Fold:
Amino acid sequence: MATIRDVAVDAGVSVGTVSKVLNNLYVKPGNREKVEASIKKLDYRVNTYARGLKAQQTHTVAILIPDLINPFFAMLVNDVEQVLAALGYRLLLCNSHNNADRELAYLNMARQNKVDGLIALTYSNLDEYLEAGLPVVSIDRHFSRQGICCVSGDNAEGGRLAAQQFIKTGCRNVIYIRNGSNLENETLKRGQAFLEACRKAGLSAEAMDFGEETTLQKEGVRRIHAFLEEIVRDGRCEYDGIFASSDVHAAVILKKLRELGVSVPRQVQLIGYDGLRVLNVGDYVVSSIEQPVQEMAVACADVLLKLIEKKPVESSIILPVRFVDGGTTK
Amino acid sequence: MATIRDVAVDAGVSVGTVSKVLNNLYVKPGNREKVEASIKKLDYRVNTYARGLKAQQTHTVAILIPDLINPFFAMLVNDVEQVLAALGYRLLLCNSHNNADRELAYLNMARQNKVDGLIALTYSNLDEYLEAGLPVVSIDRHFSRQGICCVSGDNAEGGRLAAQQFIKTGCRNVIYIRNGSNLENETLKRGQAFLEACRKAGLSAEAMDFGEETTLQKEGVRRIHAFLEEIVRDGRCEYDGIFASSDVHAAVILKKLRELGVSVPRQVQLIGYDGLRVLNVGDYVVSSIEQPVQEMAVACADVLLKLIEKKPVESSIILPVRFVDGGTTK
Structure:
């Protein structure tokens, strides 16, 4: 029976493109027709892919993610579920809520072979907890264990795009505000590339780190508020450009700046990260670096299935990002 | 070994309250201390609940939901996962994307005993597809099969609260705009109670139905736009109050009204449904009827576990809602 890979080869496209067609996601003009023709020609049926695998498999994949409160995570899980379902896999949702014990319990479950693979957005040290045999795809994080593929948006490019916006609109004094793990990971490149590009262009560029929480919680919001009260005096802000490590941060910053009487973007420009929209259907919440959520989901599923089939995979897949204007930049 | 129910009895609170303490959710002052004392006294350990059940169980529950794009669904799934994880259950995420075939495939899986229970937000006819033995909790929908408990917010009260807001601020001519299934379900009460209360108070009150889609998609947005272009002429709207069946609808309506030069709330007041906030952390997106998401999640998990234990359950649980001011009402 034909596999999804046979369809891809026959149509002359990637497996990711076939996944997208099966899931009714956007593909380049012409590709849908090619894929549909190959599906018909080869009499490909969704699920034959999964059925061909050995019997002890559970056809279940776990996704380990901080929570679904941040819409970026919710959209990513939504798309991963859609792609995996079309390939005959079920998705176990494992929310860590930044709780190390809970994360460990989930990793334990994965290790005990109750899932065929794991997609993880985590800052725990997977190397310690996972057996070498378990197929793992990591989002935004590298691990030393061989064979874990890292899928991420192009964080360095994201940082540079934010810098370019501030540079070309004449900012002089900018700051990067972040939350999150300081362990070696892809998202650190956002700030590094941003600061480097700004400084190279002669701007004064600083960084402010608000700690390890992946999800912004009450204490994190309080700290950001206190900091903004420090840098804003009588409606004047020390900085004319603020780059935040997520749109959730940027939304918190935007609200507080306006409460403090600062006009955005006239006095201060603000750029977030992720490219989130109001209720996921409206306008961008802030100007932002938009992450390719659908592409990341397709890549995660595609690589994980290759690993389950014991095929070689790339050690990392970096996908393009873009700047989007959400009204908080000039 | 002590069960969660033993803890509840000892502390003199409901199982739901114990779940909330275990999950660090809000409980009434004093209850946390009582529950923690009972946990200590009885040496209760999370998971003993699950371990006490018979061996053929999978300790896996499926949640069938349209998608995670609407933040109301994402928040609900987030909270259900949190409560179930604390009780030793894993959550399979089943997104239907309003696709009947996909829904059927998931119901099939549930029927084949691969999960211990099902939490479903669906408009398919579960009666046809599920065996009588499978524990099912339904959100917002009643089914004829015995033993399916329906958990929902108080939709009739939500409709009346919206009507009260329009009545007390002097609206004369209001409309209810909705999407969604027309099968008998709890959410229909939103519009029914709203229209009845408005008419009783002497307002002109109409309803506009935009079809069956549970999730607002491109075609649904286009239809709403076309309708608004019809009812707005030269910046004047035929109605002075619009009540929408979800915040996602209300956000689409708000944006279009502003594009058409209508001032909200000065000329037209707008109320949505769900009580969603910008990126789930900021201000309310619109004035709305806030649903008790955490309480609904706790009730779903609590009732499902009772069903799994073959204990009697309520046939419906209706939880309180409240009006929240999001700046689109006077």
Notes: The mean pLDDT of chain A is 88.
